[in-house]
Amino acid sequence: MSHKTRIGLIGYGKTGKAVANVLSTDPRFELCWIARRTAASSPQTHPDTAIPIFGVDRQSFEILFARHPVDAVVDFSSQEAVHAYGEIVRKRKIILVSAISAYSKSDLAYVRNLGKHTRVMCSPNITLGINFLMTAANLLRKIAPFADVEILEQHFKEKPEISGTAIKIAEKLGLEDNQITSLRLGGIIGEHEVIFGFPHQTVRLVHSSIRREAFGTGAAFALSQLANCAIGFYTYEDLLLQTVNNDLPKPGFAGVGN
Ligand SMILES: NC(=O)c1ccc[n+]([C@@H]2O[C@H](COP(=O)([O-])OP(=O)(O)OC[C@H]3O[C@@H](n4cnc5c(N)ncnc54)[C@H](OP(=O)(O)O)[C@@H]3O)[C@@H](O)[C@H]2O)c1
Question: How far apart are CA 99 and CA 111, in angstroms?
Answer without folding.
Answer: 12
